């Protein structure tokens, strides 16, 4: 494949967000729903989960059913007074990314301010040609094809040039439908047909490159 372009998800792909970051975001979103929809904690948490499962993002459900301002929601739910301690950095990640031939883009459902803050803490911000956050998809997060198509147009790419590196099977399935190559970051043993290559973490990518050709 010529002129390969790597498209990386951020959370649970380039770093482990499950340990500290995701629990914090989940609590912040539940608190937001409590405050702005006048719900108790149990009802707010259930609604957060329901919208996430139904639409792929809590924000999508809030915009659709409650007219929530997306910037207001994203700002208030992505405040991290102690983000430096919460982001788990792999010291060799920068070296691994530099070893991958081709352009690199981050494509995340997270807001722009958070994505850039995490990349700075991981010390890899300079490795990417672009960071496409949820604002650039007009708040239509993956797996919605709108964001994928916007990224392709923005960088004048064909899907066949791209390798989508993700932890989410739904997002990989959407990428594969468009004609992208797919890498699933997971410890699971199964390998769905829309996954080309499976790695336990992104540190294995240089060794896995030959399997993408």
How would you describe what is shown here?
This protein is α/β, with parallel strands linked by helices and 213 residues long. 44% of the residues lie in helices and 12% in strands. The protein contains ten helices and six strands. Strand 4, helix 9 and strand 5 form a beta-alpha-beta unit. Helix 1 packs across helix 2 and helix 2 crosses helix 3. The chain is globular, with a radius of gyration of 17 Å.
Major beta-sheet overview: 6 strands, parallel
Structural class determined from secondary elements:
alpha/beta
Number of domains: 2
The beta-strand count equals 6
| CATH H-level superfamily of the largest domain | HAD superfamily/HAD-like
Task: Write down the overall geometry.
Answer: globular
| Beta-strand proportion | 5-15%
How many helices? 10
Question: How is the CATH topology of the largest domain named?
Answer: Rossmann fold
Distance between the termini: 6 Å
Radius of gyration: 17 Å
Query: What's the CATH first level of the largest domain?
Result: Alpha Beta
The unreliable regions are: none
In what order do the strands lie side by side in the largest sheet? 3-2-1-4-5-6
Helix/strand order, N-terminal first: EHHHHHHEHEHEHEEH
Mean pLDDT figure: 96
The helix content is: 40-55%
């Amino acid at each position: 494949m010529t002129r390969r372009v790597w498209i990386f998800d951020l959370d649970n792909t380039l770093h482990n967000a499950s340990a500290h970051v995701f629990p914090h975001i989940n609590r912040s979103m539940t608190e937001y729903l409590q405050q702005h929809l006048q719900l108790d904690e149990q009802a707010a948490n259930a609604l957060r989960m329901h919208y996430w499962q139904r639409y792929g993002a809590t924000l999508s459900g809030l915009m659709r059913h409650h007219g929530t301002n997306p910037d207001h929601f994203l700002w208030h739910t992505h405040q991290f007074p102690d983000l430096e301690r919460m982001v788990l950095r792999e010291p060799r990640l920068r070296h691994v990314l530099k070893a991958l031939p081709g352009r690199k883009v981050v494509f995340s459902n997270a807001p722009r301010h958070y994505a850039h803050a995490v990349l700075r803490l991981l010390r890899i911000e300079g490795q990417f040609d672009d960071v496409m956050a949820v604002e650039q998809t007009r708040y239509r997060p993956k797996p919605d094809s709108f964001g994928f198509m916007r990224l392709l147009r923005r960088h004048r790419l064909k899907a066949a040039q791209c390798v989508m590196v993700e932890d989410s099977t739904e997002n990989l399935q959407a990428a594969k439908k468009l004609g992208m190559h797919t890498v699933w970051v997971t410890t699971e043993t199964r390998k769905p047909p829309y996954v080309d290559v499976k790695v336990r973490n992104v540190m294995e990518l240089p060794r896995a490159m030959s399997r993408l050709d």
